[in-house]
Design goal:
about 425 residues, alpha+beta, Beta-Lactamase, Helix Hairpins, Heat Shock Protein 90, 3 domains, 6-stranded antiparallel sheet, 9 helices, elongated
């Protein structure tokens, strides 16, 4: 449309032009909504998936949608997804991973809740049918979070009654947001899985390296222990061979048999230690510890120090009797070697724990050595040395048996002095 008019002097016409646009009602509102949706998708592309963390990615989706798209958003994922595993059935429920809202989340399950989906709920239908659900009256959109053909979880968008109800265009936008987040969540899940595998491999490698180091040390220690009596035996035999006329045959045989006995004891303990490590426990039965102590004490002869018994009757533990008897005898052998005057064997029950203790009144064990002495071929430099006998394996064997029985074996201070070795087992 154009119009003309004259200047004040009436000589020169001036022409002005105007444009009048005529359109459908509401087109301005639709254009504004389209711009808002485009801006929201751009923001989602920038802020969702900034980390390779499943939980944080779910939180980013909830944060970007509130309040620009919804008043409240809940993101529920399978526990398997959180562990980095492939998702399976949602029958076990979904874990509320993220929740964002413009106010307190009244009536909504908090983060961390395991949510069971009743069949009548929109979320249950959404997951089962693998398609989104729009409930305009309830102000709800439920969208399944899917990636690579698997359902990771479900995202629920809520609007209050004071806000415009959800429409079909809103459903499409919600699906676009969730689909973008699903790719990021799945990437984070796969990263979590690969990181867990890497951690397991590193742990296995470290454990294998530790085991190999332990085996090397054990082999070296065992070789040293076996070579010591062999070297002594060889020296005696060579000396007898060089000077047969000056050799006391009875004395030679006595020393030779002593070294052979020591070799036999070391080999027996080495075999026992290997069996304890390789063989699982079988034939567990309720064992009365007081009766076991009395039976074992009746078989012992030649102990240099008297043993006093302090036994509470009726203390039972699930155990293999012959192995607990081995622990007791190893502890008694150790106590007899280091006692000054006497040894005490005790049995008692404390709560759900059955205790078997062997106490000597010797020099005791310093606090810094109380774990060290349970290592194979370990002897202390002072009173508990090779001079008083022993293979160096008795305490190691005893602790292995204790651990196999889900128990513990420790050494404590005795009163007024000495060492108190305590075997603790689950009581029946």
């Amino acid at each position: 449309m154009a119009s003309s008019k004259y200047d004040g002097d009436g000589t020169a016409p001036v022409t002005g032009r105007w444009l009048l646009a005529v359109s459908e009602p509401g087109i301005g509102r639709l254009a504004l909504q389209a711009r808002e949706r485009l801006n929201l998708l751009c923001a989602a592309g920038e802020h969702i998936g900034t980390t390779l963390d499943v939980t944080r990615t779910a939180e980013e989706l909830a944060e970007i949608a509130v309040p620009r798209f919804a008043d409240h958003v809940g993101v529920d994922l399978s526990d398997r997804v959180l562990r980095g595993e492939e998702p399976r059935s949602t029958d076990e429920g979904l874990r509320r991973v993220a929740l964002a809202g413009v106010q307190e989340h009244a009536g909504l399950d908090p983060v961390g809740t395991l949510i069971k989906l009743p069949p009548s709920t929109p979320q249950a239908y959404c997951v089962a049918a693998e398609q989104s659900v729009l409930e305009p009256v309830a102000g709800l959109i439920a969208v399944p979070m899917r990636a690579r053909g698997s359902t990771l979880g479900v995202v629920s968008f809520f609007r209050s009654q004071a806000r415009r109800v959800f429409e079909e265009d809103d459903l499409a936008l919600a699906e676009e947001l969730v689909n973008r987040a699903a790719v990021c969540v799945d990437n984070a899940r796969r990263y979590t899985h690969e990181r867990a595998i890497t951690a397991k491999l590193e742990d296995a490698t470290a454990s294998l390296r530790h085991s190999l180091d332990h085996q090397r040390r054990f082999t070296a220690d065992a070789s040293h222990e076996l070579r010591t009596p062999l070297a002594g035996l060889r020296v005696q035999l060579e000396e007898a061979q060089l000077h047969p006329d000056e050799t006391d045959l009875a004395d030679l045989l006595s020393h030779a048999l002593t070294d052979v006995d020591r070799l036999q004891a070391i080999l027996t303990d080495l075999l026992s230690l290997a069996r304890n490590e390789a063989t699982p426990l079988t034939a567990l039965e309720p064992v009365d510890l007081a009766e076991l102590v009395e039976d074992e004490m009746a078989r012992r002869i030649g102990d240099p120090h008297p043993a006093r018994l302090d036994l509470a009757p009726g203390v039972l533990a699930e155990a293999v009797p012959i192995q607990i008897g081995r622990v007791l005898n190893n502890l008694l052998n150790n106590a007899q070697r280091h006692a000054t005057r006497s040894v005490t064997v005790g049995v008692r029950r404390t709560g759900d724990v059955a205790e078997l203790s062997v106490t000597d009144d010797g020099p005791g064990v310093h606090a810094t050595d109380r774990e060290h002495i349970f290592q194979p071929f370990t002897r202390l430099d002072t009173a508990r040395s090779r001079d008083v006998g022993g293979t160096g394996l008795g305490l190691a064997i005893a602790r292995d048996i204790a651990r196999a029985h889900h128990g513990t074996l420790h050494v404590e201070d005795a009163v007024p002095h000495g060492a108190r070795f305590v075997l603790r087992l689950p009581a029946v």
